[in-house]
Amino acid sequence: MKTGIATVSISGNLEEKIEAIAAAGFTGIEIFEQDFIADIRSPAAVGRRIRESGLEVMLFQPFRDFEGLPKALRAKAFERAERKFDVMQELGCELMLICSSVHPEALGGIDRAAADFAALGELAAKRGLRVGYEALAWGRHVNDHRDAWEIVRRADHPNVGLILDSFHTLGRGIDPETIRRIPGDKIFFVQLADAPLIDMDLLYWSRHFRNMPGEGDLAVTDFMRAVMATGYAGPVSLEIFNDQFRGGSPETIARDGYRSLISLMDEVRRQEPEAGVQDLPALPAPVPVRDTAFIEFAAQGEGLEKLEGLLSSLGFRRTGRHVSKAVTLWQQGDIRIVLNAETTGHAANAWNVRGTTICDIGLSVSSAADTVTRAEALGAKPFSQPLGPGEMPIPAIRGLGGSVMHFIDEGALSDVWDVEFLPEGEAAAEAGLTRVDHIAQTMSYDEMLSWSLFWTTLFDMEKAPMVDVVDPDGLIRSRAIAAPGGEVRITLNGAETHKTLAGSFLAEGLGATIQHVALATEDIFATAEALKAKGFEALPLSPNYFDDLAARFDLAPEMLEKMRAASILYDADEQGEFFQLYSKPFAGQMFFEIVERRGGYAGYGAPNAPFRIAALKRLQPPKGMPAIQKT
Ligand SMILES: O=C(O)c1ccc(O)c(O)c1
Ligand SMILES: [Mg+2]
């Protein structure tokens, strides 16, 4: 299977685009004409450069306003096409994309357009070139792939074929099953893009909001299944017009594209085995996640002592000390927290950059080996560092932005805790915390699509709709990613400005990181009592919040009083209820959350987030003072 991406999909100049596309692992490139025209090099030199980087020049596009023109304009269009054929021959590209006309003088009529294409096919054939016809969703007369196909069919020329683009089909709500009727060898090229469902003008939506398959809401997998069912054996290529990507990092966007495409084709192969997806390396299915195995903090000195104090006040006990490293294990229920005070290695690097921070998360998965294999096939890098005495080689990868994740399964490595840690028997009463409910990653808004793609392509996890959270100083976009039974839940919080709480956390800490961890209890009132006895200090909330709760929900007055007394927040959905309790911030702006889910409540208390953020902000030092001291 040949994979491609259009130059228009990523930022930078043509050279930067070529480098990033080649580095990400694609087979080829679609040259978007503007990118080529802006380059100083000759077509031959550009073609050579692309091939030297290991890429094929798969497609030259777009050629606009060709078909259906009245006489004089028609002749000009053919001349224009000949000039572009010249360029293509120099470039070493044999396929041109012609998108359906938007010309105000273009005439309709399928036979007229077919005759134009038959004539152009002749000219192309003389030079050993081919042309493909794509229906733009906003084309003047042709805006549906079924009409474009009828024109190609009637043109009946071996050098004239159809080009399909998932956006134009799915964006118009055309059933992709209709593609199954087209002969695969008449489909010359396939472009893929997803998009978030937003009700707006098709052209504007397409030119600004496309994103990678899996990042949006369109049925791109169904589209591609139908394409493969035709016997299509040509390239599968991404064509993403996106304002954010145009301003992003070429490497990141190209890597995301590759991850998206491989994961999509893997899914197509699974769902449509008879379609015979060729030359796609075998890779394990998206990996089921079972639980959060551990959360590891990098902490040293005074910051370490403070964190130990906070963990004790949350009912955690130190249960182990690493056999060879300055690392301790803290437990409660099924929760494991690792405190790493090493002065070399990944944790030390993280501490040097951020101070006290979560530097690693461990996930329990069905197969750790499969997880690493799939992650690498999708472009992730394995992670390892020299093993100390007595240490076990736990499979790990680099997540995005330098983060690290370890994977533990039920195999030989599951007894890592007994092997690597000497037990410490500090007896102390727990506070009823049972497991990690969710992990909240904070990032800049631009990183959200990358992270949601990372989680949903590697693991058997689904993304929930985006929600907006109001911070007094700006907006936070929030999206949850969860395993089907909620075994692991991640929330991605994207800050648009550095003035928001999440944004200032980022400004201090360099890149996406985990800002809070939510721990589950089965009885939040009992937990709140137990914590109080241990000296835990809850985040104080405004009394107005509880008055509003009384107005919005039918809560028993005694329960409301208990919530008010213990600073417990509340939310409910159709399935159940949700209770939340926050710690005060520590190490700058990190915090813990304690939650109780009753019934099948599926959310994260998003309606409460503005009040939590305002409460946290009240505790920040006055503006102008440093918010984080590196301890
Ligand atoms: O927005 C456009 O004009 C445009 C151009 C070329 C394409 O392949 C396409 O899908 C859209
Ligand atoms: Mg297209």
TrEMBL record:
PANTHER family: HYDROXYPYRUVATE ISOMERASE, XYLOSE ISOMERASE-LIKE TIM BARREL DOMAIN-CONTAINING PROTEIN. It comes from Roseovarius indicus. Mg(2+) binds at H438, H516, E593. It holds the Pfam family Glyoxalase. Residues 435-584 form the VOC domain. One of its GO terms (molecular function) is 3-dehydroshikimate dehydratase activity. Its EC number is 4.2.1.118. Its cofactor is a divalent metal cation. Catalyzes the conversion of 3-dehydroshikimate to protocatechuate (3,4-dihydroxybenzoate), a common intermediate of quinate and shikimate degradation pathways. This is 3-dehydroshikimate dehydratase. The keyword Thylakoid does not apply. It catalyses: 3-dehydroshikimate = 3,4-dihydroxybenzoate + H2O. Keywords: Dioxygenase, Lyase, Metal-binding, Oxidoreductase, Pyruvate. CDD domains: HPPD_N_like.
